[in-house]
Amino acid sequence: MSPCQEFTFVIPDQHIARAREVLLTANFASCCQDDCRLVQPTNRSPRPYAHFILANMERPSDEIPGWHYFRLDLHKKSQLLWTLPDIPLGAPAPDNPNYMLVTDNQLDKYNPRSGLGREPYTHHPVKIPTLPRYAESLAYMYLRECLPRPGGCSRAGFWLREMSYIGQYCRLQTADLEARIQRLWQLQYHPSGLHRMFRHGDRLAAELSNANFFPLEEEEGE
Known about the structure:
Layout (H helix, E strand, L loop, with lengths): L4 E7 L1 H13 L3 E2 L19 E4 L16 E7 H4 L18 E3 L25 E3 L1 H15 L10 H14 L9 H9 L7 H16 L12
Parallel strand pairs: 1-4
Antiparallel strand pairs: 2-3, 3-4, 5-6
Helix pairs in contact: 3-4, 3-6, 5-6
């Protein structure tokens, strides 16, 4: 297992309070620490609606105060995946362009050393976005962070790293992305560096903001 393990679930807004209650009833330890880095104004990762400390896992010897190396996060769909349709109740259809299962054969074979790839069919069939929709969602979250933010703390770098990971390790075809995201994605790999992507991203973010495309970011949570 890696030194830091996070399990992140995106829940439909109308069900997220109930999801939190279920985990509390199951004796998951909700974090109530005032020094938790996730709730600090300077935190550069997305703040969850609720997060739970997985205290039964081994902690590293060099643990940083206020940071949970093993945790479970709950996020509202309206905050991270607002461009996607409702998450289906059952298994997505094989040709669903938006969602798939972690056991889907489209995913690479599971690698037990890295913990990446298609999950065994014996595992619970968790739903995830298809690769193009996930990549688009990352791009839109990056663009939202290109807008001026009170206090100057931006999470753009967080989402850009996630985009870079997809580009490096996943078999994403740029042609499968929405037209307005294709250019942004391609500019990540421009020979002259990222400055062209930054300029294009700032322009696109302003256009989308003027069209009220981005949801209001909620800072409440725990």
